[in-house]
């Protein structure tokens, strides 16, 4: 009697739920706005919990007057323990969170799992509390975007609508993490969407405002940093701020290149070492923290000291160098945490050091070092993250000081120019490429309505394993009508080889493995949403007649091939 009753009840509940979801799907616009409010509130609560959890855990691990051994032990133990959890249970929670959020938007259909959201929250909290000097803002972005993704899919919304919830959650996270609702909207559109005219602006504003209100209800109405009011002392200061922009741009490039270079080395290690790789970053931080405690954690308290002119010149210089290596090593080795906070810290110390020198040389014509620390924060942030408008608005909202807007704009522009010239690829795009994720450019999105690869791609008829030799490969393909073939290994596609290269190797008497003739990290390919003109251009540049079509979420995942003949046919060119 009980079992049939339970089945009937469950059937009624499931039917009612499905009926409710069907009704919601018919009113997606209204649901979308309501959901933006819910996402903003939940993300605000998550960020508040993030802040309280990391601060209280950190105070327990590092009490005032605590023994020096804590500064060595806890970063090591924390990085090792969290490294195992990330490897075993939460592989998608590693790193900053911003590249992963953009990948979810552009390459994974808006999908971020609940497991990733929970793993990001708890693993990052433990990592930061243990003293690893990464930031909470980037992880908050992934948590907020994940909340939007999970809720959207739970309500049965279409994938296109779920993808629109990604920037909504990201904006809510930044609004609460930095207490900057306007900058959060700009960041979601400028960095996450890559389009300041995105149609989701209304929902982004709504979520940002809601999250900001939640933050203030729980933690009060306080800016992130309290600074004195600054004023321009003399027009000659503009030249000093321009110099600060140059220095900030150079330091931004050094940070980016060091982080990407170290991370590339860690990625070359065997997969079985991934779980204890974060130990390298934790050990370096622990050793530094033993001698210089200011290296540990994000260090917003020390940023406040620099902004108020309460930090010595030598200490600021030392912290620029030590933080540069501590942050890049921690991130590159695989710890969970972002680079937002560290970029602001490094910028504040760099600006304070430059300001100290300027004020010493020209005391009557320059402001106190705190003003330069404030501008330095924005300059380094703009150079690393490549979001200059977000940087200007964020610094203004965090400090509520309008007087530094013009100097900040000058330094940001110079820093961005220097960084773009010396490091062409922005850091988040470069990090995604290292993970095998190729995000679409603004040009690709603008041309989405034209002839695309997906329209003509076909299945690959012949794949060559990378472990066979050149002679074995030639025996398989010499009678084929095609003149180029895709090379694969256990990961998937790793390159393309043409007949002329095989003939050349055979003529030279070489019999290498096929995998040694291709570069698995930089082989010619296209994505399904790219244009046929780009496919034609890459075929010509590489002298091949086929291109592998690969997923944006995984560059080694083969989705098909596109041939020269099919491209020409699509353009109406008859090759008779």
Task: Give a concise summary.
Helices cover 63% and strands 5% of the residues. The strands form two sheets. Strands 1-2-3 form a three-stranded mixed sheet. Strands 4-5 form a two-stranded antiparallel sheet.
Write structural notes for this entry.
- The protein is mostly helical and 576 residues long.
- Helices cover 63% and strands 5% of the residues.
- It is built from 23 helices and five strands.
- The protein has helices spanning 2-25, 28-61, 69-88, 98-106, 114-129, 137-154, 159-178, 181-193, 201-219, 237-267, 278-291, 300-307, 313-332, 340-361, 369-385, 388-399, 405-422, 427-434, 442-446, 470-477, 499-507, 532-542, 564-570; strands at residues 463-465, 484-489, 492-498, 546-550, 558-563.
- It has a three-stranded mixed β-sheet. Strands 4-5 form a two-stranded antiparallel sheet.
- Strand 4 (546-550) and strand 5 form a beta hairpin.
- The protein is globular and about 80 Å long.
- It starts with a helix and ends in a 6-residue tail after the last helix.
Cα-to-Cα separation, first versus last residue: 77 Å
Number of strands: 5
Strand content: under 5%
Query: In sequence order, what are the helices and strands, one letter per element?
Result: HHHHHHHHHHHHHHHHHHHEHEEHHEEH
